[in-house]
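Notes continue from the previous slide.

Worked example: a multi-chain complex. Inputs as given:
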Amino acid sequence: MLEGEASKCISCGFCESVCPTLPDSGYSLSRGARGRVILGRNLAENEMEKTSVKSFYDSFYSCLDCFACLQVCPAGVNAGKVSQLARELIVENTSPGERDPVAEMIVNVTEATMNPLGQGKAMASWSEGLDFDRDSEYLLYTGNMYQLMSYTGPLNSMRSRIGPTMSGAMARLVASRPSLSSFMSMQNDRRMAERMNGVLRTIYSLLRKAGISVWYLGDSEPYPGTFINDLGYSEKFRKYARRVYQILKSTGKKIIVVDPHTYDLLTNAYPEVLPGYDLEVIHYLDLIKNIEMKKSSMNVALHEPCHLVLRNPQKNAPREIMEKSFMIHLSKRSGKRTMCCGGPTELLFPDLSEKISERRFNDLRSLGAERIVTACPICFANLNRDGTVMEIAELIASNLM
Amino acid sequence: MVQAEDLKRELGKIIITDPVMMKPYATDASYFEGVMPLAVAIPENVEQVKQIMSYCSRNSIRVVARGGGTSLTGSSVPTENSLLLSMARFDRIIEVKPEDRYAIVEPGVRLDYLNEQLSDIGFFYPPDPASSIAATVGGSISTNAGGLRASMYGTTKNWILGLEVVLPNGDLIRTGGKVLKRTAGYDLTSLFVGAEGTLGIITRATLKIWPKPEATGRILAYYRDIETIGQAISEMKRIGITPLIAEFLDRITMDSLRDSRGIKFPEDANYMLIIDVASEEVAIEGEMEKARKVLEKYNPTELEVTRDRERMEKIYEARKGAYSSLLNQRKSMSEKVVIGDIVVPASHLPEALKEASAKLQEHNVKAALFGHIADGNIHANIYADLSDEKNMSDVEAFQRDLAMISIKHGGSVSAEHGIGLEKKELLEMEHSVNENREALDLMKSIRKIFDPSGILNRGKMFD
């Protein structure tokens, strides 16, 4: 598969011009889309025998999987897909001890606890006091993504504080004993937690306002396995996805998801690994599209999440909704050319992620709008630099008729 | 001999020597597979470029400069024991002065990005090679890139006011400047345009910029034969219409665009003509009507006039992506599309195309033909199977015949892609057939003056 995708490449370099990681990696081609495809072809053809697969690690793991490359490729090559397949090959050909310890930890903890940080119990705190309808035809599936955002900042700070050697050792320890992940409960940014919990409550309210009641699995809701898939643990992902599928399927309900990454995983990745996959998955914005809002004079810079609009090109619910009520300002990189916030690579390349998100934030800020709005918890957490960034649900809720 | 690690020690963190990180630099957009460079340098400032060139000059290390890596003739692929010098980090727009009609930019700025920024103030930089999304200012200067708009605005050489260049010995020179007129000795700026990195490393460029056309419209006309198209274009130019764009596509190209982009073309047409007219808003309808009347006179099988931006964009993007669409029709992955790039006086184009078609049959080679009809530029996109010796030999023979056609009609073997590795032999041929060897010898002498030890892009253009 890797060879098939990579060999279509004509090496025109168009993908490089939109790849966010290339300029922010100092323009080293191996950290850009064309370089990844060239290296993917080499990896598949075993051309570089003397070099172990591990030496390809930085190239493929720094890819954001944003699919910006695919939008401009005249030959239809998906450099994001090449990176994904190459990561799978790297995992297949390395022993656990050779792999990134943080990646190993995340995967092992997820398998053991169905949450990447072992914090499953804390994931449902947003729902306290809300009514859920067991008989509803819909299951609200948060995928834990909004809830996890309050942990990423403190955990990254800790990693940077204690340095790579110590954090690697800790990660290895937790990877071997996932129950030790409980220490991560201390690494929680309370203000971010309150904000993200608030967004989830707002989404719930918007659905109610649109006449939709939902059922929710509470603290037994599983994490969908995004990291396991993104990190290239294909076999483990297949098994994990089966577990999640069975839990969701057993509810007998249609699945409402709230973030782009879970939506992408359930609509694109799960069907690829689960024969007979038959969940009906809906993004909540598609259900509240027709909710009545006042005309607002507020100027809003819209950041369209790549995992929503580049992976599902026929959809752009955030823009459709925003256009109805707000004066929206779009960056030159919007729509099919939208630019990733850098978030997806934050776990393994925090410095690179930071540079990309700063560049994107400055781009959006330069539009001169009062607010920057996005529809993704990862984008929110990465772009939220000066208090002007809002989640789309917050903005919609503040402007209802 | 200097080793990669010596370079790293001397030049520091801007040097890459890791084989995995260097591998992507071994190729560009051409079908030439270069060798692994000795090392890759990605300097951040002019001082570093000077240091690199001075060091390489002292140690006789060959240097191959790279911009966007979009060359179709192999001009940016590394050769044996060379340092690959990437100018990608020179990515800033330094100054834009619309009232003086210039912009100062660094060579790593991509053309589409530059035009996006200029567009905000109603200006643009006209050269637009089909690779403009990825092609850089430095690379396009070095190949004297043309593009679709050359019909009205000419090629890159018409838009370069001045350059800052680091010479092979590490010295820095500045040529030209911010003014539209200048007669101060030899025009050194022009020497670097199309020099393919053989004379120096461009570190800054002063470009002429121009107000964007106020209004544009597009006419798509379909014909059964190319002679009629040639006659229509000639008449258009005779009566004073200069199209912004005048492109022709043959049936094979149309079919590939149909397959790759879902665009429908009339079945009974063998050639498609795309004409863009630019003018002031108040006059655009009248100008388009004048062009339409000429095209109608030559009995198109179908004709469409549009000012719909979405439709225009779709056709423009399709034309720009024609090469890629043709690539998608390859029979196997070992098959490549070699782009022939000849130019003849515009009025000779129909005759030259007829001769090219006959040569295709004679050599049993498959090629799609499209190009810029108003400036006589034909792109013969030849399907070439690198694993098939017989086929490759036929392709080479056809390339030579195609080159001869261009020379015979008073044109050239290279219109806008440069020479690189691909056309070295054809460049020699052009000068020999034209009994103009002295001009080529003079070029070689000029190269020697700039680069006495022959370290810059050695093996490219000519030996």
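Summary box: DSSP finds 18 helices and seven strands in chain A. Chain A has a mean pLDDT of 93.
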